[in-house]
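Field reference: sequence -> structure
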Amino acid sequence: MRSKPYTQIGIRRMSCCRCGQPATCQWKICADQTYRPLCMECDIALNTLVLMFLRDPDRAQKITKYQKRLVETKSN
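Structure field:
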């Protein structure tokens, strides 16, 4: 666990804290003030879960747009 955000290079050296795949994203858990590395799939699942929890009526469109942005970023 880490108290400072990962750099772009640093996050790519990490494994997802949930599934072990290569990390591409990070989440700061406010309750314990730590950053955790996540792979793209787990990051999308977590974003989906949060939007569902918040009962966001546009969550499907937001997740689709977010997925596209992540894929574009990964391919660059």
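Note: The chain has one domain: 8-75.
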